[in-house]
Each structure stands twice: as C-alpha cells, then as structure tokens.
Q: What sequence folds into this?
C-alpha cells in the first residue's frame, strides 16, 4: 500500500498562513495529478486545488488569490501554501493523488480561529 503522508495542518488565527505538504511513502510512486480537497462538518468534500503533471492548476473559487499549489515531480510531492486564512477554511484537508488508482491521505485538520 502506498500512503500519502500529510503535514502542516494546525491551528492558526484569521489572516494567518499555513503550508500543507504531501508526499508518497514509496519512492517509486508517480502521479499525473495531485491536489488537496477539504471537508468541513456537515458539508461535502470539495476541491481546494489540484495540479497536473504539466503544472496546470485548478482552484476553488473560494481560495483563488489566497492559496497556491505547487509540486515537485522529482519527489512527487505537492504543497499547498494557504495565506490570508479565514474561519471558513476550517476543515479536514485531504491530500489526493491520481496514479494508476486514486489515493487519499488520512486528512489533516486545519482550524482557523481566534
């Protein structure tokens, strides 16, 4: 089993920032698309940002201009820089990767609160 290892979640004040990282547990893992989804209590899981192998990106409207996704293809890692965080960003964030199958990280909690 290839695991996606997430890091960077935590508690931050409104207007603050966090940097989420995700890396596969296996060096041989490669993916065409990687990204981040999130799920807040009582809501459906939603796309936050995704990035393809050629660095094409797609963001949720709610995070455009605040979040930036990037990837390191050599290491198959994906990073989500989250700036100007709002309480509405509070959710469990899940790393996603598309390879020969769909892979999901275990989720990391992001809480934006004063």
A:
């Amino acid at each position: 089993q290839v695991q996606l290892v997430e890091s960077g979640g935590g508690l931050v004040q409104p207007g603050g920032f966090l940097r989420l990282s995700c890396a596969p547990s296996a060096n041989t893992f490669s993916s065409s698309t990687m990204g981040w989804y999130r799920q807040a209590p009582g809501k459906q899981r939603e796309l936050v940002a995704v990035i393809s192998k050629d660095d094409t990106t797609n963001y949720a409207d709610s995070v455009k201009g605040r979040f930036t996704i990037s990837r390191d293809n050599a290491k198959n890692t994906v990073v989500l820089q989250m700036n100007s965080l709002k309480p509405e960003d509070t959710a469990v964030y899940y790393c996603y990767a598309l390879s020969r199958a769909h892979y999901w990280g275990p989720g990391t909690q992001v809480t934006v609160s004063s």
